[in-house]
Write a structure and sequence with these properties.
Length: 256
């Protein structure tokens, strides 16, 4: 009987994997989201630009000593605050249209922008759940003899169309605090993105906030870490990025 049960489970898993879908789009995420089916997404998990490029350039910061692919050099993080707010407002508008009832949206964001993000999300009917923190155990010790070393990034969690959604904690306490190293070198070689996050964090979030077979959207896909997590955890994935080389990197990572 045990063997028969195992075979049945394996067959169900195989059927599930065959039904999963992985889509990749290159272009402006708002325009692509506007062409997607309403109420078709279970989770939006993403890491949008923090809009800190100009902020960094205007401060007394020695950018020359930073790595060449650091976000302050990227260009995509250099919007004026008003322009960034308009873009993020459109993002939340489309996210609200695409998410299923009680679907979740979780995004990473600079701590100094969290209040702005919450206000924009609430405007479009999102219920604010919490702000969490990712603590990096081995941050770059830049200016360590001058001030506190930056070792944290924030993430913000919302539900649309309700106050609670899927949360697969299996009765265990889950803190709004993730602690890992920065992205390991092996993962970074595959992704080569300046703001790449560790797969370990995304595996936790995908497992907590979705069920097998559900659909996850990442409108700011970068090198595809969200998609890799979906592939590993049997979720469908839709990824969008405006930079074609990253779309190709994401495809390759997920295929492999």
């Amino acid at each position: 009987m045990k063997t028969q049960h195992t075979i049945k489970t394996d067959n169900q898993e195989l059927t599930l994997k065959r039904n999963l879908n992985y889509e990749f789009h290159c272009g402006d995420c708002i325009e692509i989201m506007q062409g997607m089916e309403q109420s078709s997404i279970d989770l939006i998990l993403t890491d949008p630009p923090y809009n800190l490029g100009l902020f960094m350039h205007r401060r007394d910061t020695n950018l020359k000593k930073m790595r060449e692919n650091q976000f302050a050099y990227s260009g995509w993080d250099n919007l004026e605050y008003k322009e960034w707010s308009v873009h993020m407002d459109s993002f939340f508008e489309e996210s609200a249209r695409l998410l299923k009832k009680r679907g979740a949206l979780l995004l990473f964001m600079s701590i100094i922008k969290v209040e702005s993000i919450i206000a924009l999300a609430q405007k479009h009917g999102f219920y604010y759940k919490t702000t969490g923190v990712w603590h990096k155990t081995n941050p770059m010790p830049r200016n360590m003899n001058l001030h506190f070393v930056n070792s944290t990034e924030a993430w913000v969690y919302f539900i649309h169309g309700g106050s609670t959604g899927t949360f697969n904690n299996n009765g265990k306490l889950v803190h709004d605090f993730f602690e890992t190293s920065v992205t390991p070198q092996g993962e970074r070689k595959q992704g080569v993105h300046p703001t790449q996050k560790p797969l370990k964090i995304f595996n936790s979030l995908v497992g907590l906030l979705t069920n097998k077979g559900e659909v996850v959207l990442d409108p700011f896909m970068g090198s595809g870490t969200t998609g890799v997590s979906c592939k590993l955890n049997n979720r469908s994935f839709i990824g969008i990025d405006s930079h074609e080389p990253y779309v190709e990197i994401a495809k390759k990572r997920i295929e492999e």
